[in-house]
Amino acid sequence: MRDVAIVGAGTTKFGELWNDSLRDIGIQAGFAAIQDAKIESHDIDALYVGNMAAGRYIAQEHVAALITDYSGLSSRHISATRVEAACASGGVALHNAYLAVASGMYDTVVVGGAEKMTDATDAENTEILAASADAQWETFFGATFPALFAMMARAHMQEHGTTREQMAQVAVKNHAHGALNPNAQFQKEIDLDTVLNAGMVADPLGVFDCSPISDGGSALVLMPLEKALSHTKRPVIIRGSTIATDTLGLHARPKLTSMAATKVAGQRALTQAKKTIADIHLAELHDCFTIAELIALEDLGFVKAGEAGAAVAEGRFHLKGGQMPVNTSGGLKARGHPCGATGIAQVVEAVFQLQGRAGARQVKGATTALTHNVGGSGATVTVHVLEAT
Amino acid sequence: MRDVAIVGAGTTKFGELWNDSLRDIGIQAGFAAIQDAKIESHDIDALYVGNMAAGRYIAQEHVAALITDYSGLSSRHISATRVEAACASGGVALHNAYLAVASGMYDTVVVGGAEKMTDATDAENTEILAASADAQWETFFGATFPALFAMMARAHMQEHGTTREQMAQVAVKNHAHGALNPNAQFQKEIDLDTVLNAGMVADPLGVFDCSPISDGGSALVLMPLEKALSHTKRPVIIRGSTIATDTLGLHARPKLTSMAATKVAGQRALTQAKKTIADIHLAELHDCFTIAELIALEDLGFVKAGEAGAAVAEGRFHLKGGQMPVNTSGGLKARGHPCGATGIAQVVEAVFQLQGRAGARQVKGATTALTHNVGGSGATVTVHVLEAT
């Protein structure tokens, strides 16, 4: 396998992008990454696109061909692949783009993720998102994603004594980080009372325990490491790239307070990278709900099972004063969560950090980062370990 | 890059599978391939699934996790990826599974395609399929796939003098082949008058010029060639595997009588395989409409532009008496066209032929085959060149 590196990263602003369609968003993200990489469109050999549900959102499948066409790349008839893995579509797209370069078949690959969600009503969004759960055994009986994660939260509270206040601290932290990110959907700090007094979505998860509905796109340019080193001064090396799966339905798992796919994907990625969790300087974790960040912190081994709530409340994962900042971008909670884009957006943030250009969010001296992207309630998890050169 | 070989192939029957859901179909196809490969489920490192539109057909996204779960593979947390490229979803899945093995990251990969279409009404199917065209510039204005291919047919008739009778001969040939395939949706010969007198769908394409709405699934097991040779007596080597793209909309192309993506994907695959078109002994081509097979024959170089109609009518591509049989499986027309499965089903037929186990459809002495899978009206095309060992 060839070593693979990231030579460019770019993103749109996340939020309610009223003036931009899915194709606009995809192209803007791709162009940002291409400009950042200082390559021309004729350098590109293949495109990978992560997208969850354009078929249902805008009656448009064949999304990779769409982006290839509207970015002008179809004139060179490049290879293009769309992957879908619910909210892990971006991470799974990156894994496959990584394999495409590692294989030796393609030298310069653009991988992006995009989703256009805000044109749908809240009810439509709830239904479209629920299609990533088990349609036959969960959605049919009325399960929604807030409900599924609320069950995990209740189980975590029961098993480990985790409190609503501890979960709320995840939202407070990630909003504080998002306030420093000019591309975040919510660039505003919030306090604990705001989270605790917000309207209930699925008890114990209130509005501020949930990531928002978002439009947005992010993209990366990959090259073999050897070529990357001659092309740019500071490529970021993909040291580990893994996907792990679990049962689609939550009901089929032995426990609700942990995601086996996160444990496996994390361990495989660290092994591949020849690192331990202690080597990681910052992480972007999949906080689709506040409880999800706590579970990820425990499953990845940053803390022991049951200790994440207290650790977050103590400030261990804060940008200011924390030992290992988590979700410096604002996370899904504050940066926003356009599903197909999220797995790529996490890596864009890690690249900016490892290249020392994260501005007010910069983690000083960071050389190793981990990103963690979850599909559904944990049926697909991807983990990437990234290292500065 | 490691050489990659196919060590197992399997398929469900294609047709109206009233008793089987998408998950049933996917699992049956996968098990057939696994049994054929004589491997156990614990040998599998990764799964790739091609599926066009389960989100719209059955409100189920996250399709790779679904199949992983219901085949029991989630207990080992294997890597799983779903790809979507309209009716080329199967071929694009195979290309990425090929890269996954070629890269060196995965040794034993199952790649399958599945679609469950017959639970939708005809109107729903027309709308869901049309989502693979350009939603903003084609579908919005009422374009359907029969209409788009009818325009290609009219242009071909105008430019090359192709006749309705010549197009109809594609359907007659493929039904004759399908009659020999126990897994085909239509195992019945038809005559020229039946095609010509059938109800019109989109002038000049009648019902028998169109492939059917189908349920079905197909799967393959891939290994590095070296491992494959020690595992099985006669693996089939993937000598060429390519994807090429074109504009999503038909209106943006310089001509309607040729698909540039087929030309490019075909030439790239032959170059990769170090073959010429004269080396090919049989081909499975994407005959979603009869005109599509004629255009593919010309674009791939089996005949010159404008000569495919006469060549088919002369019997050059018939199993009985033809020089280079095309669509011995019955093609999309008679074998059936469950969109996500088609690109894999074509390769399953090629594997059976190259291993000498195609029964009544056997092409004697065939050692090299080509498969051609089209998404939309040609915005994505994949070509695979396969060789017997």
Structural class of chain A: alpha/beta
CATH superfamily of the largest domain in chain A: Thiolase/Chalcone synthase
Tell me the helix content of chain A: 25-40%
Topology order of chain A in helix (H) and strand (E) letters: EHEHHEHEHHHHEEEHEHEHHHHEE
Instruction: Please work out how many helical segments of chain A DSSP would assign.
Output: 14
What is the CA–CA distance across the termini of chain A? 19 Å
Of all chain pairs, the largest interface belongs to: A-B, 68 and 68 residues
Order of strands across the biggest sheet of chain A? 3-2-4-7-1-8-11-10-9
Biggest β-sheet description of chain A: 9 strands, mixed
The coarse silhouette of chain A is globular
What would CATH call the class of the largest domain in chain A?
Answer: Alpha Beta
Strand content of chain A: 15-25%
Shape-level CATH architecture of the largest domain in chain A = 3-Layer(aba) Sandwich
As for the CATH topology of the largest domain in chain A, it is Peroxisomal Thiolase, Chain A, domain 1
Radius of gyration of chain A: 19 Å
Structure description:
Two copies of one chain form a homodimer. Chain A has two domains: 4-121 and 214-236, 3-Layer(aba) Sandwich (Peroxisomal Thiolase, Chain A, domain 1), CATH 3.40.47.10; 131-211 and 240-388, Peroxisomal Thiolase, Chain A, domain 1, CATH 3.40.47.10. In chain A, a hairpin with a 2-residue loop joins strand 5 (200-202) and strand 6 (205-206). Chain A is built from 14 helices and eleven strands. A nine-stranded mixed beta sheet of chain A has the order 3-2-4-7-1-8-11-10-9, with helices on both faces. In chain A, strands 5-6 form a two-stranded antiparallel sheet. Chain A starts with a strand and ends with a strand. The longest helix of chain A has 16 residues, at 22-37. By secondary structure, chain A is an alpha/beta fold. Chains A and B meet through helix 2, helix 3, strand 3, helix 4 and helix 5 of A and helix 2, helix 3, strand 3, helix 4 and helix 5 of B.
